[in-house]
Amino acid sequence: MIKLYKKYLKEVLSFMNNRIMQKEIVTDSLGSLNSQIKLNQPVKEFLVLQQVYEAGIKEIRTKLEILDDEFKIKHDHNPIHHMEYRLKSLDSIVNKLKKRNLEVSLESMVENLTDIAGVRVICNYVSDVYRIAELLVKQSDIKLIQKKDYIKHPKENGYRSLHLVVEVPIFLAERVQPIAVEIQIRTIAMDFWASLEHHLRYKSDSEVPDGVRDELIECAKTISHLDYKMQGIHEELNKSKKRIKSS
Ligand code: 0O2
Q: For the residues of 188-205, what is the DSSP string, one character each?
């Protein structure tokens, strides 16, 4: 399988990475690629699957946008600040399967990896994180597969975020395919920390020194404190708005 991939890996990867950078992901990639290079079957199958995962992202994205719009109309507040999306690249899929000593095949990828389609939802306040998660998960066509609450139970390094893996049905021409989508929901402040921590970790070739690790944990605590303080201010403002309206 790897041998077959290797033959076309370079073309496919550069094509896909370009598309992902343009945030268009892989819509009509099959058509464009077919005209550029002669595809072999595994690559074609991979791209077909990529399109289904892309559809999973679109479904979740639309559902979240609808919830955000409705919330704005009803409560004069957008819980979502912004969203980011990504499809896992072919090389990170292969690396992850190898790292877990799993077979490198399309079947194994579908069966074992739940983060091929990823959506990151950046919310304004901590309460928005839970509200959005609850509203999404209770929809009748959404199946919750996994929930990791790193806000209530932060990781040792200070990482905070709510992680969900949900399954959403994709209606194709001849079948309905349930697709797993990983959703990371966190506040702007938590995202600020996670982005910098990720950058620092990947930039340093050596292990992160203990002192730096402790400082990062301290920063995460400060940020969390700030999050709850901002939420308090937001709630106070809401109350005073309501008081003014009713007087
Ligand atoms: P990428 O490129 O970000 O997608 P699993 O994904 O299930 O094999 P794990 O660690 O059990 O592995 O899953 P978990 O805890 O749900 O974390 C998955 C993703 O959360 C990671 O994806 C990161 O995006 C993010 N994440 C988890 N822990 C940290 C952390 O300590 N710091 C930061 N900055 N991000 C974190 P990947 O797989 O790393 O890759």
A: HHHHHHHHHHHHHHHH-S
